[in-house]
């Protein structure tokens, strides 16, 4: 049929995956998601509560819940874990020893959480361009 040859119709739907993005304040979660969404790096403001971004890829769409990393917000992270299919943990590889220890504790807590412990984790050691950045082995 001529119609079938010239009219391909809508593309097939891409699968969608729900991820949660966590890390301490200033680790670069918002910058990472802005970069993945091809948004301007100008005027990036730290996330106070949470934000949701759809990150399109050729084969899939990632719906990412970015959770703020301030002390007073981290205790509420677990309320947003339900339905997640993966975790992005962002840490500042150039942070102080105290902040790195706090990040380790938060990562271990997330790895042991019943709603996350079976999910794939991506651990991103951000700020590798800074002079004080630690290597992957040091992190």
From TrEMBL:
Mg(2+) binds at residues 30, 47. Pfam families: Arf. Keywords: GTP-binding, Magnesium, Metal-binding, Nucleotide-binding. GTP binds at residues 23-30, 69, 126-129. The keyword Transcription does not apply. One of its GO terms (molecular function) is GTPase activity. InterPro entries: ARL15, P-loop_NTPase, Small_GTPase_ARF/SAR. Belongs to the small GTPase superfamily. Arf family. This is ADP-ribosylation factor-like protein 15.
């Amino acid at each position: 049929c001529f119609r079938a040859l010239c009219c391909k119709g809508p593309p097939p739907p891409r699968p969608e995956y729900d991820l949660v993005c966590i890390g301490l304040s200033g680790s670069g979660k918002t910058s990472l998601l802005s970069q993945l969404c091809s948004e301007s790096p100008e005027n990036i403001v730290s996330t106070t509560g949470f934000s949701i971004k759809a990150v399109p890829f050729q084969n899939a769409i990632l719906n990412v819940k970015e959770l703020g990393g301030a002390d007073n917000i981290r205790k509420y992270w677990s309320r947003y874990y339900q339905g997640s299919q993966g975790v992005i943990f962002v840490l500042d590889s150039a942070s102080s020893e105290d902040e790195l220890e706090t990040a380790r504790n938060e990562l271990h807590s997330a790895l042991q959480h019943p709603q996350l412990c079976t999910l794939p984790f991506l651990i991103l050691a951000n700020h590798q361009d800074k002079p004080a950045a630690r290597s992957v082995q040091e992190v």
